[in-house]
Amino acid sequence: MFQLDDQFLVDVGLGSLPEEQKKPFLQHTYDQLEYRVGIRLSEGMSDQQLQEFEKIIDRDQATVTAWLAQYAPGYQQEEVFQRLVQASGLPADSGDLAAEFAATKWLEVNRPDYRDVVKATLDAIKAEIMENKDAILGTNAA
Length: 142
Fold this sequence. Notes:
This protein is mainly alpha-helical. The chain has helices at residues 6-11, 19-42, 47-57, 61-71, 79-88, 95-110, 114-131, 133-137.
């Protein structure tokens, strides 16, 4: 979907950021993205939905297992899950993989617009970074 990496920094005008600042800056950007997306996605959700999703995110195995049994009983055969297995290198029966898949699937079921929300939020963050790149780099616009 997107990657927060050196190319992202180049795209927002921060390719010259000192090497020791790149990783912390990218982590901060990811944290902001996660926070802002979470706020936007939670709008309009019931308390029950929020509690269920929180349990899935927190890897509560009973919740993950029950949710997958109801909404994705054959999840281990799904292409998305197989890609997660390959990308992570974890065994297919890993509880962490099941929780990761459940979180993604939960969003598809309960907030089918979540990819659009992530994209719009990332675009807004990119615009903020580009607008403030001189301050971030410690340079003045001429």
